[in-house]
Amino acid sequence: MARVLLPQALVRLFPGAPRATDIAAADVAAAIAALDARWPGMRDRLCDSTPAIRRHLNVFVDGERATLATPLRADTEMLVTTAMSGG
User: Fold this and answer.
1) Other CB atoms closer than 10 Å to residue 11's CB: what's the count?
2) Where are the domains of the chain?
3) CATH number for the 2-82 domain, one of 3.40.30.10, 3.10.20.30, 1.10.287.1490, 3.30.830.10?
4) Is the backbone of residue 34 left (phi > 0), alpha (psi -120 to 50) or beta?
5) pLDDT tens profile 45-78
6) Residues near 58 by Cβ (< 8 Å), separated by ≥ 6?
7) Residue 86 belongs to what H/E stretch?
8) pTM across the whole model
9) How far apart are CA 69 and CA 73, in angstroms?
10) Which residues of 16-42 are buried (b: 16+ CB within 10 A; e: fewer)?
């Protein structure tokens, strides 16, 4: 199972969703689908209509920037963060 870590801003929108959860998934897209199955609407918060990860979010798998196609292993950590911007 991959360990998925979610930002507090996202967790607040889905009552009962933990900051960290274990998901059995082959890739990031499947992990997001599994999250959406548990907490309907989460996919819309994470992905746009193309589909791709939303512009103001970043997903990292074991410390490397990921896309929806990035594979997950049983011991993988998938971190979802809000993007930092500034000027």
Assistant:
1) 17
2) 2-82
3) 3.10.20.30
4) alpha
5) 999 999 999 999 999 999 999 999 999 999 999 9
6) 65, 80, 81, 82, 83
7) none
8) 0.93
9) 13
10) eeeeebebebebbbbbbbbbbeebeeb
**Cα–Cα distance, 23 to 3 (Å, whole number):** 6
Joined together, the tokens standing for residue 30 give 């499947």
Token pair of 54, please? 């939303």
Residue 60's pLDDT is what?
98
Section 33-51 average pLDDT: 97
